[in-house]
Amino acid sequence: MSVEVVEADEKPRRRLFFLSAVVIGIVLVLVGQLFRWQIVEHERFQAMAAAEHQRARILVPQRGTIVDRNGRPLAMNVITYDVSAAPNLISDPYLAADRLWPLLGRPRDELINLLTQDVPYVLLARGVPMVVGETIMGWGFSGITVEPSPHRFYPEGSLAAHALGFVNAAGQGFYGVEGFYNDLLEGEEGVLHGERDPWGEIIPIGESQWQPPREGRSLVLTLDRTIQFMVEQELAAAVERYQAQSGTIIVMDPNTGAILATASYPTYNPNTFYEVEDEHLFTDPASGDHYEPGSVFKIITLAAGLDTGIITPDTPFFDSGSIEVGGRVIQNWDRRGHGNVTMTDVLVLSLNTGAAHVSTSLGAERFYAYVRRFGFGLKTEVELAGEVPGTVRVPGDPNWHESDLGTNAFGQGLAVTPLQMIAAVSAVANHGLLPRPYMVAQIIDQERVIATRPYLRQAISPQTAEELTEMMVAVVERGARLAAVPGYRIAGKTGTSQMPIPGGYDPNSTIASFVGFAPADDPQFIVLVKIVKPTTSPWGAEVAAPVFKRIAEQLFLMMGVPPDNLRQQAMAE
Amino acid sequence: MRERDETNTHHAQLLDSPINSNDLFLSVFKLDVEMAGSQELPAHCQKTSKRRVETRTVVIAGLMLAMFSLVGWLYLTQTSQLTVTGYRIQELQQRKALLQEENAQLEAEIAEMESASRLMARARAMGFQPPQRVTYVPVPNYPVRAEAASVARDQRAAPADYGTEASSALARWWAGLVTQFDAWLQAPP
Predict the structure, then answer these.
(1) Does B87 touch chain A (CB under 8 A)?
(2) Is A498 exposed, middle or buried (0-12, 13-18, 19+ CB in 10 A)?
(3) What's the N-to-C CA distance of chain A in angstroms?
(4) Does the ipTM surpass 0.90?
(5) pLDDT tens per residue across span A134-145
(6) Domain segments of chain A: what residues?
(7) What is the CATH number of domain A225-572?
(8) Which of B90, B144, B165 to mutate to test the interface with A (most CBs of A within 10 A)?
(9) Cβ contact (<8 Å) for A224 and B151?
(10) Dihedrals φ, ψ of A394, to 5°?
(11) How does DSSP assign A90-104, residue by residue?
(12) 3-class SS at B87?
């Protein structure tokens, strides 16, 4: 009897114990879950909850504009529209095609094909003008979507394309100033946090936090649109006239380093950059490509000689027609000896032997010190993406050879960019002060204007610059007469360089160049002309010098520079 | 009177009995209750008083209701106006953005129409030619230096005499303009 009583008492107790354990277990699980939700994953769930009733709208800043020195727009922003369709939602694709094809400029049959496909999405047109987009939106066609899309627009088309660069569909700038100043131009995104309505729009009276976007800064370039256009026209004509492969022309203010024009051919239209097949076309040949400058570099060699005092313009030199440097025989371009000449004659006749004589007289240390002083082998720090420093081998470099001292003297065996070359010669025009080339005159940050201050440093003495200017005037008056403009004294130098190929130089290809400034006594501009692989003549004096003349004639008019006699007469009064 | 006597008797009984604090407390309580019961107002007075209380309550309730209604109405009106204004602002902002887009579009069209290549093509179509021959005519005292420097030199420091020349040129230009204007005014119609 007693056993039965015990069993009767134990069963409910066990059940109670079991039930309690289950309840406690469930409570523990719940508490554990609550702990996880409330403490451990608090932020995740808070974010999920916020996402249910809150919305963050990214406020996209306006990309800064780019204008030329006179305020003419070169790059601006427009809104275009992308037109797409959901074919499965269109009740009458034939009617839709009938109304769309005249606006979108696509054949009617093509549109019908697209609109009758069994797909949820087709793109009908990208980047249609605003008026077209708004017209289509006004129809309210079910299944047709029109979405605005910010778009970079270059109103001058291909003008100054290499200097400007372009902006891709994601709003990222590449090459030129668009690439160099992308961070400044694109600005900083803002954000609007707020409670949203059932349609996802932010409720105007709800709680909201607004961080305004920082608009992109605008750039005022040193480029002059009119000069740029003229230079591009002349370059395209020259490449065609001399049946050349390509070319580059730079116009600069030698007194400040402000680039007035920089043109390269062939070029591209940044509005349709995506159509370019060869990406190399995007690289700016003025600052991103280097070449052997040839005899133009003799200006640097003679500047070093004059500045150190080892030569004067009248220092005699006997030209036998060849000179040996480091075991290598250097000859003149005409393979002739010119007998007794002066240093001015060395420049006028473009004698390689004379230049090599000066560099060897200077010695490697002093010669390369001057090469560096003129900025070769270093980036100019111009505000263009993709600038290269060029190549200058100096003693101590593993591949430098003693003969380089001779060949470098007349611009062979080293590589420079056209921008480095024009900046270096600017020092001669500017009393020995070497300017840093620059492309951006002002950065406009809403109310604030940051102006670029020209940076100059002394490369040679003013006296050396003056003597060298006279020697370069003699070059134009006695040698490169095709560069001369009647009524003006012009200082310049021609260059004809061979193009290096694996194992030596291409015997059939040259780079014809000319660099000159005017008026010689008060330079207003300096121009570098570089024509690659001309086929009608290989010589700089016959190909590049006439191009310089045509450009200089127009620059005198555009910049209002009267002939020397009138100007000097007026100044005397 | 009889009631009053009974009360007095009861008080006397209480005073004669031995004192117990609990009893005393209960008795006093009882007495007060009884006395309160004995002080009832006449029926007509009670009615008037009740009506007065009711009227007051109704007035207070009415006032409170009116006040709450006013506050509620004000709140709703303000909220409603705020909402309407908020949506109006949103609408105006969208309109502004649209106008800005249209403005940008028009500016782009103007810039394209004024592009150098279009101008050149238009000039050629109109028969313009690049100058074949240029003749400079010396003008006494003309500020050549200031003019020549206008494009290329605006980025660098001006020479000491530049400002003087430029300002005197401006003064001369202004004087010439004033003279021309005077001549035009005095000219016969």
Answers:
(1) yes
(2) middle
(3) 145
(4) no
(5) 889 888 888 888
(6) 76-150, 225-572
(7) 3.40.710.10
(8) B144
(9) yes
(10) -125, 160
(11) -S-HHHHHHHHHHHH
(12) helix
